[in-house]
Amino acid sequence: MTEQNDASQGKKIAGLERNVFFSGLTSFLTDTTTKMIYCIMPLFLLSIGATKTDLSLIEGIAESTASVLKALSGWWSDKIGKNKPFMVIGYAITTIIAPLYSLAGVPLQILYLRFIERVGKGIRTAPRDSLIAGSSKQKKSGKNFGFHKAMDNCGAIAGPLLAYCILMVFPSEYRKIFLISAIPAFAGVITIIFFIKEAKIEKESLPGKIVLKDFSSRYYIFLFITFIFTLGNSTDALLLVKANDIGINALYIPLVYLIYNSVSVLFAVPMGTLSDKIGRERLIILGYLLYSAVYFGFGRSNVKAVIILLFALYGLYSALTDGVQKALVSDLIHRDKRGTGLGIYNAVLGITLLPASLIAGILYDRVNYSAPFYFGASTALLAAAMMFLFYKVHKGKPDTVN
């Protein structure tokens, strides 16, 4: 997609382009909703009869089957030159689904609702990332994606904290959390409608036919590396189950998840800004190595204090990689095809979550609770080695495609 002109040239807010700031605010509000739900969903599912494998499959199926939409919506937004409609629809779906979880009585119903909610995420993700990349001035995409990740994780702090407060007043009343969670998501949709400005793209500036050969070999190599890494990066729900299994009270599970997100918020913008200065690849390699060490620790330790420390380090891994990887992908894609390229990237991550979650769930239930974490540590180590070779081969070559 061509550079966002009207949308990015207006008055800055907190030193950020208007669209970047309000996209971040929308993600903060929506993530408050989704993380209120996510931090207690594993325990809710177990309470209505789900197994660890069921839990992993629900997350994997919901994420993977809806992830095809990430590529489709990104391609479609490139073709019509608009991002905002996809964002409104995608975020509205999450708002509608959130309170409906309170009506579920069996795990299969949760699967249906999770799938529909993930469809919403599939519709909005690539167009939103394209808007952020297009609204970023040269060499600032790392900072802007870092800000977006930080706002995302601020919501992931607020959500578990609100869930904890509700559980303090209403112990084990998970359904009340589902009902209340829709409020911030609704505010997020209002933010998009009134504060995010669509770029005005001339019809002749829109891309023509988009084909696979439009993307560089470096882009596809990086996609393969992220596929290998994601194969061992199963649902975070298993980390929360592990914390509960070693004796951390269910009441405090939202606070454990809050620690992870707090660290990610603290470091996301600094890491994104650092990647603008020293390059993305080095931070991604470090992030993969840290992930490998953290997952090995989850598999090895049953000490509460160690597990809490590992959640904090997991947050640092997130800050090192999540926004930085998107910034690298946007560097490797021509600007008028960023929606498609970022959509394919997000789709690869989402689709891979199905086999990743299935493998992890089976290992957890049928081998032992350490096996899925050792597997994740191994795939992360392999991905780090591949990323190091990627960096060495392409060192000194410019990333950005105009």
Question: Can you describe what's shown?
Answer:
The chain has 402 residues and is mainly α. The protein has one domain (18-198, 213-394): Growth Hormone, Chain: A (Up-down Bundle). It contains 14 helices and no strands. It is globular. The termini are close together.
Shape category = globular
Q: In sequence order, what are the helices and strands, one letter per element? A: HHHHHHHHHHHHHH
- How many separate helices? 14
Mean pLDDT over the full residue set = 87
Number of strands: 0
> CA-to-CA gap between the ends?
11 Å
CATH architecture type: Up-down Bundle
Helix content: over 70%
Radius of gyration: 20 Å
Number of domains: 1
Biggest β-sheet description: none
What ranges have pLDDT less than 50 throughout 5 or more consecutive residues? 1-9
> What's the CATH H-level homologous superfamily?
MFS general substrate transporter like domains
In short:
Helix content is 75%, strand content 0%. It is mostly helical.
Index terms:
about 400 residues; mainly alpha; Growth Hormone, Chain: A; 14 helices; about 75% helix; about 0% strand; disordered N terminus
Topology:
Blueprint: H1 18-38, H2 41-47, H3 52-80, H4 84-97, H5 107-134, H6 141-169, H7 174-195, H8 217-231, H9 237-245, H10 253-278, H11 280-300, H12 304-331, H13 338-367, H14 371-394
Helix pairs in contact: 1-6, 1-7, 3-5, 3-13, 4-5, 4-7, 5-13, 6-7, 6-10, 6-12, 8-13, 8-14, 10-11, 10-12, 11-12, 11-14, 13-14
